[in-house]
Amino acid sequence: MNFRRRIEAIRDLIAGKGLDGAFISSPQNKYYLGGLFSSSGYIVITRESQYLMVDSRYFVEAKAKTDLFQAVLLSVDHSVEHRLNSIIAAEGLATIGFEGKELSYDAVRSLQEGVNCDLFSLDLGKIRAVKEPEEIEAIQQACAIADAAFRHILGYVREGMSEKAVENELLRFMRAQGGQKESFDSIVASGVRGALPHGKASDKPICRGELVTLDFGAKYNYYCSDITRTFALGKCPAELAGVYEVVRAAGDAAMRMAKPGVALGELDYAARKLIGESGYGQYFGHNLGHGLGLQVHEYPAVALESGELLREGMVITIEPGIYIPDAGGVRIEDDILIIGDGCRSLTHSARELITV
Fold it and tell me: For residue 167, what are the contacts with CB-CB under 8 A and spacing of at least 6?
């Protein structure tokens, strides 16, 4: 991992904002910048130096991780505010940016009361938007685990089995295949519950003649996959079979357009226009997709209002869906990598309607 390049990207960002440093608290950005994935500890990057602040549980590991950072020990007598003030005094810092989307109001207020400089909210979301080769490889491995899990579950699901039983088998299988854990709480929604875009698995038995939507993913080396497939148990209801083809065509339309220089909003519009012209526009209420990496939902949003341009190396999801109350729903989601002349799918599960 190119930590030095990433640290310099933070320096460029704080310089552009007129700040003297950045205080980084989120696990994903601490891992991205320093290789330490932990809910505790902090990274501080100034115009001259960089520090990794941890307590005794992580101090030895932090010192061994990289020689780019000065490891700073936190303790009862040497709190984060105390350590920050030492850096502020030594380097003459007046302003520090913090992750406004990650720290609570109370945490920021307490920090501001304890340090001798002004704090300003800083959005670091864009720094991870373009993936490096080793990041892409980790996401690809996470996608391969998810693809294998979908193939497995098609041979596992049976009439009368509860949605929770399917969820539990998904998690067991992904871990057995080398997944660290699930990327997020898996969605298993069958029958009329398929109309719930975030229908968490329930005790409902899966019945013959229903569609089943699975939305799940695995983490591999801290990087996420996120895949959705909808399949039929027995014969698919006629209307929903037609809905399935509309959703599939909408995803295809967006992926054909995906390439460097295209605005994210254009992808959303292409899928949304097709769904609307098919008479189902009112049943597609969420964005077309989102960025994917150390978090399952990260920058950028694949949203209708977004003028952000795709860049080579971005990884995003494409996930159109149609959700009809009291009838059911369909969503198909793929993870794609933006490459020089288009995109490459990182998920490879069949996109045609499968009947079990």
Answer: 186, 188, 201, 216
91 and 34 share a domain?
A: yes
Structure tokens at 261: 């220089």
What is the tens place of the pLDDT at every residue in 35-91? 888 888 999 999 999 999 998 887 887 777 768 899 899 999 999 999 999 999 999
User: What CATH number should be reported for the domain holding residue 22?
Assistant: 3.40.350.10
Query: Which residues neighbour 306 within 8 Å (Cβ) at sequence distance 6 or greater?
Result: 263, 264, 265, 268, 300
The packing angle between helices 80-91 and 105-114, to 10°, is 50
| Torsions phi, psi for 256 (to 5 deg) | -65, -30
Residue 161 — very low, low, confident or very high, per pLDDT cuts 50/70/90? very high
* Same domain for 228 and 116: no
Beta strands in 170-304 (DSSP E): 187-190, 210-216, 219-220, 223-224, 227-233, 289-291, 298-302
Task: For residue 72, give its domain range.
Answer: 3-128
DSSP state of 100: T
How is residue 139 written in tokens?
A: 């996401």
Q: What stretches of 66-132 show up as alpha helix (H) in DSSP?
A: 80-91, 105-114
The vertex-330 CA angle with 325 and 332, nearest 5°, equals 150
SS3 state of residue 316: strand
Whole-number Å distance between alpha carbons of 354 and 13: 47
E-strand stretches of the chain = 21-24, 42-46, 50-54, 70-73, 95-99, 118-122, 187-190, 210-216, 219-220, 223-224, 227-233, 289-291, 298-302, 315-318, 321-324, 328-331, 334-339, 342-345
Contacts (Cβ under 8 Å, ≥6 apart) of 78: none
Q: What is the total count of domains within the chain?
A: 2
Residue 181 and residue 289 share a domain: yes
For residues 189 and 108, membership in a common domain is answered with: no
Residue identified by tokens 């700073």 is: 72
CB atoms near residue 4 (< 10 Å): 11
- C-alpha closest to that of 344 among 276, 269, 258: 258
